[in-house]
Amino acid sequence: MQAAPETIFLKDYTQAAYLVEDVHLTFRLDPSATRVLARIRFAPNPAVADRRFFLHGEQLKLISARIDGAPVAPDVTQTGLTCDVPDAPFTWEAEVQIDPAANTALEGLYMSNGMYCTQCEAEGFRKITFYPDRPDVMAPFTVRVAGDLPVLLSNGNPTGSGDGWAEWHDPWPKPAYLFALVAGDLRATSDSFTTMSGKKVDLNIWVRPGDEGKTAFAMDALKRSMKWDEDVYGREYDLDVFNIVAVDDFNMGAMENKGLNIFNSSAVLCSPETSTDANFARIEAIIAHEYFHNWTGNRITCRDWFQLCLKEGLTVFRDQQFSGDMRDPAVQRIEDVLALRARQFREDNGPLAHPVRPDRYAEINNFYTATVYEKGAELIGMLKRLVGDDGYAKALDLYFDRHDGQAATIEDWLKVFEDATGRDLTQFKRWYEQAGTPRVTVADEFKDGTYTLHFKQITNPTPNQDVKAPQVIPIAVGLLGRNGDEVLPTQVLEMTEGAQSFHFEGLATKPVPSILRGFSAPVILERDLSASERAFLLAHDTDAFNKWEAGRSLAKDVLLRMVTDGVAPDPDYLDAIRTALRDDGLNPAFRALVLSLPGEDDLAQTLFDHGLTPDPAAIHAAREGLRDALAAHLAADLAPLYDAMACPGPFRPDAVDAGKRSLRLAALSLLTRVDGPARAQALYDAADNMTEQLGALSCLLDAGAGDAASQAFRAQWQGDRLVMDKWFAMQVVHAAPETAAATAERLTTDDAFDWKNPNRFRSVFGALTMNAAGFHHADGAGYALLADWLIRLDGANPQTAARMSTAFETWRRYDADRQEMIRAALRRIADTKGLSRDMSEMVGRMLGGG
Ligand code: B3K
Ligand code: ZN
Predict the structure, then answer these.
(1) Same domain, yes or no, for 264 and 369?
(2) Ligand 1 neighbourhood includes 107 CB (under 6 angstroms)
(3) Ligand 1 atom 4: the closest Cα is on which residue?
(4) Are residues 236 and 319 in the same domain?
(5) For residue 374, how far is its CA from the centre of ligand 1 (angstroms)?
């Protein structure tokens, strides 16, 4: 294994020695020899005593450098340059040459299908020019782009253009990570939005020729986001134009560059024929997320990268609120919690666990995680619950007032809440500093009309943090009577101690408690509850989240007992699900969620938490067994339900129709088990939208009857990159465990497999890791194949490779043979010559803990 990469610590933060007053950039675009001229006005920072002039810079060929017009010869290394500079404000000019065509890492300036594109967050700007590439250095930018392409874009407002050039000015001081440039043969869908103060903003979504028909939904989502941020947060847009660009090669979903958001085409392009309901919902959320960053991220940015959750946690929280308002808040909450548990709980309970505000990193790109984003959002939700809606609104107003134009910290954020509400948040801050998911156990007691809940909290050690202090946990509780009536509406209990009891007096009989309503804190609640009490809550809980949670925990118990004791599915569970399914008062999306089962990875984690060694094959078999049992038990209901949930008329991507389709497809999947594939084939043949076409294909593949449909699907969609990603993923997700790795490997030889395109790479290997029983098959083929391809990808695109290596983070759950195979795969990656910093850090952390 190679030397560990250097670690950067939060405690070592110091201010920048030189601040930037303004930036002028000129780009002369050329695929392999782009010239970048920078003219930057620097001023010494009087707050720093011992000043050294250092500019970050990587993979840059320095052509010339001047200070106040006089040539200088800086000392250039692999990571930047130093130079003697005056002890007063001065103008720095440098010309560098870069090679966008050779940039496969998709960070800095790169090319995608003939189009120039940038990605600077977190530290990509240093691959464009020499600069103090840190978020606390903020400046207005003027950018001139010259190139032989029809569309030339950068941040801010357009200030001039002519044949082969365009100039842009962004008046809002910003850190370099928000810089963007796009150039290409692009077509715009245009619209406008009039802000609350009556200013007209031009909106454009730029796409490659041929994709113009897939922008309408994103444009509508953008306008709804702009309006929502005005209505709910009082935030108005601040430039004359807002541009969005779709690009095919992109490492993540999208990027909030000031006035010029760049999107993975999968996160913006959609149409009923090519996109599923889930795609529509994701696009709506990402459009909103990037737009909301304009205030939470751009106008107020982060002092340093340790503060990443300041913008990400808050912006995720805001996009979740928005989606809840646009759709169904209860369904949205359940889906957000499902994602949190699947990704964040898994991370928080393994070797990659880190605090929401990490205190160290080697490569910051490795910290764009579910913990920073999704747990970060949960912390905002807890704060809001603790200070109330009014307190939250006051605190946010103060935050925007006080910190506009600044690079802020979590301390600033919490201080705003303290000042606005008078609440002491010293203990709450632990949520930002302590990694690991708290486990809360609860016991209850009823005596002389007093009902008592006894809680205990414990958080297991995580890497670099052996001892945990108690956290403030808002526990929303309601009490139900035996007849299902609510005897006590929701109250928020504030747990602050390791063990704490809460009393409820004056009750005639022992109530049934509904605990952690709305999932009021990101904890694992452990509670001994009989199947009949869970069924009671599924039937009667007035809190939609806990109603669903009751069914989910019932399913989980049934599955765990099937795995550990080999018992048959519990008929009480099957009856309870049937009752919920028949309840027409419940919205279809909710019923579909009630019908869905915990995933195999979730079950493996729970078994491990209970001190058992999960067997992926046994888990898979139990889950299949329960789906068969559900299908048999519900057989009489399924066909009528399938018919009732049809959505006649033109496709609408709204939450109501999407919910019906989701219940319809859940019914179809079970029906196919009892009735065979004919109905799924009929839907496949008739479907006029991707949700049903793909849903039907899934059923056919699961039934082993999908070959013809799969071939037809490919023939129909081979010209559509995004639909072809679905085709690749389908083969692997639905492969039997023993053939999953071989299927993935076969797909890598397909003509349409392009491993350098992150979406396509993920469509095969992300899918492989989602097929838990296949990835963890005892023959180890999945581990070896993924390691081979991660090594290969790391040579081209470290960010995406490192991100996908998290598939191995759960290795300690498994038996000795699997552990040894995964460790061997990780060691093989670690031993690779020239491994990236991204990947070395990830494998080092994954191996380190055990
Ligand atoms: N801020 C970007 C993520 C950048 C990731 C850099 N590796 C997208 C977002 O969170 O909106
Ligand atoms: Zn974000």
Answers:
(1) no
(2) no
(3) 121
(4) no
(5) 13
Q: Are residues 377 and 487 in the same domain?
A: no
CA distance 268 to 358: 31
Cα(122) to centroid(ligand 1), Å:
8
* Cis amide leading into 65 (omega within 30): no
Atom of ligand 1 nearest to the CA of 297: 1
Report CA torsion sign: 601, 316, 387, 358: positive
Question: Which residues are part of the catalytic machinery?
Answer: 290
Report the DSSP beta bridge partners of residue 247. Answer: 264
Q: Is 177 in the pocket of ligand 1 (CB under 6 A)?
A: no
Whether residue 575 lies inside any domain: the answer is no
- 429 and 454 fall within a common domain: no
725 lines ligand 1 (CB under 6 A): no
Q: What global pTM score does this model have?
A: 0.99
Rounded CA-CA distance 546/554 in Å is: 12
Distance between Cα 733 and ligand 1 center (Å)? 27
120 alpha carbon, closest ligand: 1
Identify the domain containing residue 347 by its residue range.
302-433
Identify whether 761 is part of a domain. yes
The CATH number that applies at residue 140 is 2.60.40.1730
Instruction: Return the residue whose CA atom lies nearest to atom 5 of ligand 1.
Output: 121
Q: What is the CATH number of the domain that holds 398?
A: 1.10.390.10
Distance (Å, whole) CA 282 – CA 28: 36
The DSSP 8-state label assigned to residue 425 in this structure reads -
pLDDT digits (tens, 9 = 90+) for 775-826: 999 999 999 999 999 999 999 999 999 999 999 999 999 999 999 999 999 9
Q: Total domain count for the chain?
A: 5
Q: Please give the DSSP secondary-structure letter assigned to residue 653.
A: -
Query: pLDDT tens for residues 275-332?
Result: 999 999 999 999 999 999 999 999 999 999 999 999 999 999 999 999 999 999 999 9
